[in-house]
Amino acid sequence: MVADRGRVASGWAEALRELGVVDRAVYQAVADTPTPELDRHFRRLSNAANYSRLWLGMAALIAILGGRRGRRVAFEGLLSIAATSTTVNLGIKPLFRRRRPERAYSVSEARSVRMPESASFPSGHSASAFAFAYTVGRHLPGLAVPIRLLAGAVAYSRVHTGVHYPGDVVFGSIIGAGTAATVAAASDRMSRTESGSVS
Question: What is the rounded CA–CA span in Å between residue 54 and residue 56?
């Protein structure tokens, strides 16, 4: 029994090691691929999403143009971003403490952005992007596809600019959407409770 558990643990460790190898290989492949026309666009997009400025701006537009429903969507979206940022930055990053990529020798200056000092795993930009996209998509189906594409572009931009490994953005995206789903469920329960008390 003990030997079986040891083999299982060893198998998981080897699988994680191999995933790490693939993760770094994909990062290097992106870094080694010349994309002069794309570089400035992804650099600007990555910078626009710093501190969730891109999503704050979109939330403001939705609140202004969408009336009462838009204000609810914007509020829930911002709440999802806040919950996601807290989970990622205060909970997960300190736990894993993955080092950032060694960008100096692999990413061209044209696509370079400031290297954050926080841990690499998971990507906070990706988490916030997909948290906001989940919220907007569930309330405004007409915007679901474009905003998720934009969230995906923000997530990819973090690999393109060399500040994250692909695995960081994949897990960040999953965590962001999952956190937003939790916030959505809580919001729906509160709405039903309020409706019940009024009736």
Answer: 6
CATH of domain 2-198: 1.10.606.20
pLDDT for the residue 196: 64
What percent of the chain is modeled with pLDDT above 90? 78
Checking if the pLDDT of 45 tops 60, the result is yes
Amino acid in position 160: H
Write down the residue that tokens 């992007």 correspond to: 129
Contacts of 134 (CB under 8 A, 6+ apart): 80, 176, 177, 180, 181, 184
Alpha-carbon span 183 to 176, nearest angstrom: 11
Domain boundaries, the chain: 2-198
Taking the C-alpha atoms of residue 145 and residue 186, their distance in angstroms, rounded to an integer, is 24
Query: Residues 81-107: pLDDT tens digits?
Result: 999 999 999 999 999 999 999 876 667
